[in-house]
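=== Structure Prediction Worksheet ===
Name of assembly: unnamed complex
Input type: mixed (protein and possibly other molecules)
Chain count: two
Listed entries:
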Amino acid sequence: METSTRHAPADESGGAKGPADAIVPHMKILVIEDDLEAAAYMTKAFREAGIVADHASDGESGLFMGSENSYDVMVVDRMLPRRDGIAVISELRKRGINTPVLILSALGQVDDRVAGLRAGGDDYLPKPYAFSELLARVEVLGRRKGAPEQDMVYRVGDLELDRLSHEVRRAGREILLQPREFRLLEYLMKNAGQVVTRTMLLEHVWDYHFDPQTNVIDVHVSRLRSKIEKDFDKPLLKTIRGAGYMIKDEG
Amino acid sequence: MTSRLRLMFRSTAVRLSALYILLFAICAAFLVVYVTAMSERILAQQTRENLVQEIGDIQRAYDRGGLNGMLRIMERRARQPGANLYVVAGPTGEILAGNVASLQPGVLDEQGWTRFPFSYRPFSESGPEREHMAIANVVFMENGLRVMIGRDLGEPGRFRGIVRRALMVALTIMGIGALFIWFGIGRNALKRIDRMSGASQKIMAGDLSQRLPVGRSGDEFDRLSESLNAMLGRIERLNEGLRQVSDNIAHDLKTPLTRLRNKAADALDEEDAGQRRAALEGIIAESDQLIRTFNALLMISRVEAGSIAAEISEVDLSAITADSCELYEPVAEEAGLRLETSIAPGLRVKGNRELIGQAMFNLLDNAIKYSAGSAGEPLVHVVLIADATGIRLSVCDNGPGVPEEKREEVVKRFVRLDASRSKPGTGLGLSLVEAVMELHGGALRLSATNQENAQAPGLTATMVFPPLTS
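=== Predicted Assembly ===
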């Protein structure tokens, strides 16, 4: 099924490429999760995706390890023994640790997400989640340090997107996009080379925070794809089966 | 027995009556003291008035008949039974005449009322008696004689004793009565409470059909039992409903789980690597669908429980509607449908944007899914209007629609009219929309878009929001 978002961690689809050609070679993350089985699965899957994952099983030790400030991303469970996940994040932020944090929560989506982000979390993923979704988000968060936040022009291969003038060109030829298509492309190009899931697109382009469940996002992406790839030989926008989309210049 | 007594003291009724008895005892003691003091005062007052009158009489006798006249009347009066005290003394205080044998020294030294009761020995033929207490008025006459008229206090004292005894007896009887009543009430209350907790034990053990005993008196215990029984009835009905829902859920989850299991078995047998991969992917897709179903179920429960209500604020319903239509427009186009909108601008409601958005997505998804390829006009029409009764957001399709008698049914969890389940979906979409509308104080209404068209009457799903009150 095309819309599937879960995939085996070792499988070559999605961001999981196997240790040899990992997308992010030197990312080091901290997983604070009290469910040991889930943590073991996560660290193994992250390792297979080329990410070094340390594990802390309660809030206190998580805070202690996180305070070293040597991690690129932290994945924090909302409910932790000895110190609540939200409390760990607020304490880390108080200590001046600005490592991006992704909150995992078994609680519902709407209200809990707001509480998590208010405490200083950067992203939020409700349980149960697909690992591909978690991986994509962790990779985007980890890259954020070097993300071209100030770049006014994003480039992927011969595709150019000007964030100021809202102009999109490919090989010098102007491509006309609807405002929503522009934002879709902008988000994809900002995270070029990284898997972006359907949920992430719905979040950043439409500002809704739930699993779209249907193929709505795919329809928009395929419209965008036809606009930027029609009349050009080289495909740029790839569908990553079981995960989402990625824009990348294979050349 | 002691444990029973202790139990009894733990009962509210018994504790209350114990408190009442204590209060009663304090009041009774106060009453005894007060009544005796009051009666004593009245008696003393009467004694004084009586003495003043006597003095007047004797004064008049003296005026008329001189000393002899006075002595005569005093002597006559002194002989009467229960007589007052009469003393005529010389200027130095020696008793000259009267019915008193001796007096406490100093009584005759001052004119007027004696300040305190004093002791005296009454004169009697059989010799001096024991000391009595009395009060008296002393008058100094011009000739130097001192006349004292007094009253023995024995009688008021006796009266006080009688009053006190009578009161004590009455109060003791009342107290004993109260104790008996207390014991009776306590025991009765305890017995009934025992019966009620016995019934509750059975209910707690799982027998929800049990009811608490209701007596005929209609007192507070019976009223309590009746309302608890009504509550139990409601719980039983809810429980029954819940059991049905979980039965449905179990049934509806069994099918995909069985499919999942069969696919896994197939994958295990698959020799060809590519085929096995495809089978595994199918398994993942199937699991994803299950996870979605669970997520949707959880979401509905949370919305129904109202635990999401924290994030309700004023939102722009027109913008949400326009956004969702924009999101679904290409989907409709791909399904060969037109998506038309008539959206009144700037309509605001109190709500949660995420939830309304998700409800809207569900309705649009349904409309597109069910009217694609139907006999009706390939059109989905979204209308947002406001009037006095509220704000109505309708998604109208021209698909096969939902027969009137089934409209209540399709909103329930896992109910899908499409028996073959050929269209993808969890059967939870409308349940979520309804839960969201209930959270917003509104309602979901289902009707036919075009009643006359028997082939494709279509379905109009309307979200009715209460008007925004400022």
